[in-house]
Structure formats: structure tokens, C-alpha cells
Amino acid sequence: MRELVYYVAVSIDGYIAAPDGSYDAFPLEGDHVATMVSEFSDAIPAHVLSALGLSAAGDRFDTVIQGRASYDIALREGITRPYSHLAEYVATRSGKPAPEGVTFTADPLATVRQLKEQPGLGIYLCGGGTLAGSLLPEIDRLILKRNPIVLGDGIRLFGPADPTMIRFDLVGCRTFGSGVAIEEYVRSAD
């Protein structure tokens, strides 16, 4: 069965963005970037890959699901398919028609459950926190790019969700001179 993987940058105090939704406090330079590009190229937007002269490896993810606020970041720049190298799903209740190549879903939990039953690679949960909180029952793996900053407030890793305890086991942690740590967790079998 396919995995739903929440791959996200996060502060030491558990925020994925500032209160206004900005994430520019997270460093985009440092020795951790080479690992992000080489191992997680499928999770880099197509226009960024193109600007870097790269292409997605196509070996980790073949599908992305993101919240409407995350999708709107690219849409404001006129980019209707930020992850054109992946099957794209956007959780939204807007009722507006989706651009060609993008699927809008008002029930992301049901959508993820259906996707997990289909053959394919991993499903990349791009954000945001509220969506991650609603999909927590289906998240199989967390890959956290823990940044050496304290935001103090903002968008929480799992949004406003108050879930029952779900255990994840740490299966790997790599630290970099930049201060970033990539922590990988899998849902506990217990």
C-alpha cells in the first residue's frame, strides 16, 4: 500500500509557518540543501526545478496533496500546476473549477484513502497544518526538516487539531552544519 508522507519544514517549537503564513524564516541555503535536492526532488515545485536546471527524480512521490492556502502561494504567481510532475490534489471547499491537471477535493481524507489503495509511489502531503491535522489518521511517515529557529507563534505542524495520541517511531535523524536536522518517523505498529 502507498504511504502518505508529511514532508515539511518546521521550527524547533513546532510551527511550519509564521502567523501570516510566510515561511521565509527557514534557511534556503546551507549544507542541508544538497540533500533536499538529491533525495527529495519530487517534492520541489516544477518551476523551481526548472530554474535550477533540474528535473524530479520520480522515485519517491508521484502524487501531491496540499491545502488551498499552500496552493494559493503558487496561484498568486500565476502557476496553476506547481507540481506538474506529480498528480496534484488540492483540499478545498471553494466550489470553483480546478485548473486542468489539478483535482480539487472537499473530502481529502476520503481522497487519500482512495489514493492509498491504488498502485504507485508515495503521496506527498505538502501542507498546510490544518490539512495535516485532518489527515493525521492516514499519515504513515513524517519527514521533518527541523530548523534551528523558534517562531513563537504561527501555523502549527498539525494545525488546530487536538488528536488523540498517535505514536511515531524515529527511524532516522541527520544533522547538518547549517543547524537543520532531517528527522524521519514512521507510524508505530503498536
UniProtKB/TrEMBL annotation:
InterPro entries (UniProt xref): DHFR-like_dom_sf, RibDG_C, Riboflavin_Biosynth_HTPR
Gene3D superfamilies named in the record: Dihydrofolate Reductase, subunit A
GO biological process, one term: riboflavin biosynthetic process
Residues annotated as transmembrane: none
GO MF assignments: 5-amino-6-(5-phosphoribosylamino)uracil reductase activity
Residue ranges constituting the Bacterial bifunctional deaminase-reductase C-terminal domain according to the UniProt record: 103-181
Coiled coil (UniProt feature): none
Pfam families per UniProt: RibD_C
Domain of life: Bacteria
Name recorded for this polypeptide: RibD C-terminal domain
Taxon lineage: Bacteria, Bacillati, Actinomycetota, Actinomycetes, Propionibacteriales
